Amino acid sequence: MHHDVVVVGGGAGGLELAASLGRKLGRAEGPRRVLLVDRSVFHIWKPTLHEVAAGTLDSHQEGLSYTVLARRNHFSFTLGELRGLDSAGRTLKLGAIHDEQGRLLVPERTLTYRWLVLAVGSGSNFFGTPGAEHAYVLEQAADAERFRRHLQAAFTRTAFSPDKRLRIVIVGGGATGVELSAELIEAHQETLASLGAEQRFRLDLSIVEAAPRILAGLPERISAQATTALERKQVSVLTNTPVKALLPDRLVTATGEIPADLIVWAAGIKAAEANTTLGLTTNRAHQFVVNEKLETSAAGVYALGDCAACLWHGDKMVPARAQAAHQQASFLVATLGALLHERAPSGRFHYRDFGSLVSLGENKGVGNLMGGLAGRNFFVEGLLAKYMYMSLHLNHHRAILGLRGTFVLALARLLQRRVSGRLKLH
Ligand SMILES: Cc1cc2nc3c(=O)[nH]c(=O)nc-3n(C[C@H](O)[C@H](O)[C@H](O)COP(=O)(O)OP(=O)(O)OC[C@H]3O[C@@H](n4cnc5c(N)ncnc54)[C@H](O)[C@@H]3O)c2cc1C
Known about the structure:
Blueprint: E1 2-8, H1 14-33, E2 34-38, E3 42-43, H2 49-54, H3 59-62, E4 64-65, H4 66-73, E5 76-79, E6 81-86, E7 91-95, E8 97-98, E9 104-106, E10 109-118, E11 123-124, H5 141-159, E12 165-171, H6 175-193, E13 202-208, H7 220-232, E14 236-238, E15 243-247, E16 250-253, E17 256-259, E18 262-265, E19 269-270, E20 288-289, E21 301-303, E22 308-309, E23 311-312, E24 316-317, H8 322-340, E25 355-359, E26 365-369, E27 378-381, H9 382-420
Helix pairs in contact: 1-4, 1-8
The structure holds flavin-adenine dinucleotide.
């Protein structure tokens, strides 16, 4: 099978890229020239995984099927997992995919391309901490679903237990840990509202962070606001507390032990080790090293998003964020658009940091916007910050569904929530 452009990974960046290129080429040309490969059959925007994990977002309702997206945006889709690359021969190897019973779904295949884009995202970084198998992670929809099922069981079990106390510890006080804790508090409150007095139980939720403050990558003011908001919701925020080991029922930290019924690891990310076997230059975090055109060490092979190591301002790296993947996808639409029309691409990728927004539950957020009025950094909080945070998700939907599709989907979800409620614990 041959396509001019093959994009591997249909996440925040890769899907936007395939959809934009497909739409540019149109119904007749697009499916023949652009192919998207993903190991999953449906797409879910990764920044919503903490909501799926807490049961405040239904992954079946949120997920969008790649086959439908491909048809609407005029690209081809194939299910497959990247296994090997021969960049000199412009050939890609996809491994076989099996179902849950181990039966073969898709055999091993070889694809050829003119230009390849690697957009395979990242996973968790345990920094060598022993006991990683005792923690839940939020790397893909299946991880978030698994945590949600176990959370539901833990809620039910605790409601009927003698001590009526559930202890959840989140390791890592970055945006993922903070946002997950806010959702878990709301899931607990909604659950309590449905229980009789004799079944009400306590949720002891802690965030354990090695750095002196949570949201360490954001301005101090945001970190202080988030700490206050979480502490008001009775979340213990333990900073300066590096985790040394994870055990089935507790964490060992530099300052003592913390008992835990459920542990979530949200302390760092790292790209897949398999990236280092493709013959491309990678860094210590297994990211593909790219130049200012987002090209890897092999001609015709590009990388974007969390799996790409791209310099920013000469010495810093472009952060692993959805807004970076989105900007890189837009840049590659221009590059590959030119190449597909046999023109030389121009320009270099410049990352523009528009600031950061962190959700603190259904109606609350906090964040900063860069380059706003008079080029200054300004802070937002409360409902306004939450609406701005939600607009990022809507923007992603707009890139893959168009304006009308996004509006219809948002309305349908709002109406569904009105009837079924926000919490999905079944
Ligand atoms: C809970 C959570 C909250 C977040 N919140 C925010 C936020 O508020 N703002 C923000 O900017 N960022 C946020 N992020 C980070 C953001 O999600 C990522 O930076 C972004 O998704 C990266 O996009 P990507 O396209 O590089 O990879 P991804 O979106 O991770 O997509 C990677 C795709 O590649 C596929 N894939 C992986 N390996 C293979 C393979 N070998 N073969 C085939 N397909 C493969 C996967 O199935 C997936 O579809 C959050 C992350 C998490 C986990």
